[in-house]
Structure formats: C-alpha cells, structure tokens
From TrEMBL:
<protein>
    <recommendedName>
        <fullName>Carboxypeptidase regulatory-like domain-containing protein</fullName>
    </recommendedName>
</protein>
<dbReference type="InterPro" id="IPR013783">
    <property type="entry name" value="Ig-like_fold"/>
</dbReference>
Amino acid sequence: MKETSIQKTMPMLTRVMLFAILTISLGAGCLGRDASHPDLAEVTGVVTVNGKPVQNVAVVFNPEAGGHASRGTTDAEGKFQLKYSGSAAGATLGRHDVLFIYNDADGPANVLPRKYADQTASMNAEVTQEGPNEFTFDLKGR
C-alpha cells in the first residue's frame, strides 16, 4: 500500500502540536513568578512632613548590598506601596537606604530639604521576609 502525502505529514504535524502544547503549558506555569526577580517582600508605609501627611513624595528604597531599587509615591494620606518593577510589588530583602523626593510641580516649593534626596544622608530601613514591612517616616520640612 502506498503512503499518501497526508499520512507522511501527520507525524510531523503531531510533533509540532505536541511541542506547542508543551511550550504553552510550561509558559503558563511560570507566569506566577518572574524568575528574574530576587526574593521580594511587600513594603508599605506613611510619609509625614512636620507630622502632617504629604502627597507626591517619591519614596526610593536602594538596597545597601546593591541591586535594583524599589519605588513608590505617596497619596493624599501620605501612604505608599513599593514596586520593584512594573509587574512586581515589594522590595528586596535586607537593609536599604531610603530617599525622599518631592514631585509636585503644583504644590508648595521646597517642602523637603535636599538632604532627604541624598543617598549619603538618607534614612535606613530593614526589609524582612517575616515582616511586617510597614514604615513610618516623619521628615522635618521647612
């Protein structure tokens, strides 16, 4: 009996389909956590200036051991939540230098002294796996 072209291509088509299904399945299993990110912990907090919450302050956690910084911005209540990247919330574990930069072009000028944006004179925070990683920073303004 002579093989038709359909019979010849069936094993190839089966292999391609099997490979596609396997690739999609493995990819879907990896979507929960990006392997390129180190261990992260959720970090939240409040920033006040002279005891009052301040909006539009960028909060930056720079790991003392080096690596990617995490950032967040305060809301009207002075609350922030850090993001490591666009898809990952939190900050790396360990000790961090914490910087504060006022970002409101429409707000009062010079709310924060420049020292809060200087890494050599910054505050520090320790991020742990156990948590809670909830920080309150009361900055002294002008």
